Amino acid sequence: MPKIVPTKTPMPEQDPAIRKRNYFEVPLGYTPEQAMEEAKRCLQCKKPDCINGCPVEINIPGFLALVAEGRFIEAAHLVKQANALPAVTGRVCPQEEQCEARCALSKKFESVGIGRLERFVADWEAAHGETEVPPIAPSSGKRVAVVGSGPAGITVAADLALMGHYVKMFEALHEPGGVLVYGIPEFRLPKAIVAREVNYVCSLGVELETDVVIGSTYTVNELLKEYDAVFLGTGAGLPWFLGIPGENLNGVYSSNEYLTRANLMRAYDFPRYDTPPIRGNRVITVGGGNVAMDSARTALRLGAKQSIIVYRRSRAEMPARLEEIHHAEQEGVEFQLLRNPVALLSTDNSGWVREMECIRMELGEPDASGRRRPVPVKDSNFRIPTDIVVISIGQSPNPLIPKTTPDLQVAKGGVIVVNPETGKTSKRGVFAGGDVATGGATVILAMGAGKLAARAIDTYLKTGEW
User: Fold this and answer.
1) Is the pTM of the predicted complex or chain greater than 0.85?
2) Which of 233, 247, 258, 283 could tie 304 with a disulfide, CB 3.0–4.6 Å?
C-alpha cells in the first residue's frame, strides 16, 4: 500500500498584496499534475461516506479515480451526471463541512481536496471544448415553470429537462444566475463561469426569460393556467437591518445592495460600466458570514484604506468558511470581534454616517444555534470613525409571491413552508426550494433541495398525485 500523503496538495493563489486591489480570481486552480497527485490520496473506500455528505450525491470516489488516471474529461462527465454546476460548487461549496468532513482520511489527516478537484475537472472540460450533453428522455408533453435562475432553479430546470419535460425559467433580473451573479464577487466566482454553466443548462432545451417579476408581471396562479407545475426558487433577497439609531443615514447599505452594485451592475469596473461604485476610506462591515467577508474584501478592491469587520461573537463562532476568513485576513481586513453596534452617528450634521458606536460583548451560555450567546459588557461603549457601513447580518425571502398567492403557506421570517423531502408547498402543483424555503443558506444546499424537488415534480407530472 502506498504511503499516505497527510496534507492536501496546495493550490496556487494570487499574492494577497496584489489581489486585494484587483478582481481576478484568488485561487488559480490545480495543474494536471497537481490534480492527479491530489486525487491519488483518495483511499477508494468500500463504503464511501463522502457521497452521503454531498447534497447532490456526486459519485466522488468514481470521479477521483478517473482524475488519478488522467482521464479528466470522463471525470467531468461523471460529476455532471449529478451536478449541473460543478465549476460553481467547486469554488463556493463548503466542502469542509460536507463531503470532505466525511472523508476517511480526515480522521487522521487532511481530507482529499474534493472541491478543488471538482473545480479542476469542470474547468478542464470547458477549456478543451468537450462539453457533453447527457441523453435526454423523450418528451413527456408536460410543462414546468421555474421561477428564479439561481442554484435551486438551475438544478431543477436541468434535471427536469433531462427527464423529458419542457422547462422555462423566469428571472427577475436582467442576467440569469441569481445570487451567483449578484451576490458572490468576481474574485471568488468569475461571472463568465456562471454564464457558461447557465448556457449548459439551456443547451438541454431549457428556455430562459429575464426581466420577469413573478408576483407582478405574472402571478403564480396565472402560471398554473399554462404550466403543469411551478417551482419557486426565488432565494432570500430581503436584507435584515440592525434596528439601531442612524441606519437611515447616507453611507449605510445592506450587503445586498452593496454587492449587487459591485457584481451584477459591474461598479468595480467603473467607468467602463456606468454604475458608480460605493467607495469609502474607512468601511465597516457588520456580520461574520461569507457575505460579510465578500463585502469587506470588496471594499478593499474598491479603494478603501481600511476595511473592518465588526462581529458580536469571537472568531470561533463566525459562520463564514475558514478559507474566506483566512483570505480576508491575508488581504488586510481588520477584525473587531466581540463588538456590537448600538448606533450610527453623523457627527458633522452632514446626513452622512461618520461614526459607529459599539458596545463590547462577552460570551455566555450556548443559544439555540449551539454557539455561545453574546452578552453586552456594561459601560463599555466606544466609537469607531467610518464613512461607509455595510450591514450583513442575514436576509429573508421577498414577500411578493406569498402576497399575491394567498393559499401559499409561509412561516416565520417569510419562508415558504415545504415538505423537506419533496419541496411540495401548501398549493397543489407548486413546489419550492433553496433559500426561499430555508432562509439564507449555501449554494449546494439549494442545489440539493432542487434535486429533491425535481424528482418529486417528475412523479407528480406522471401520476397526478399530490
Assistant:
1) yes
2) 283
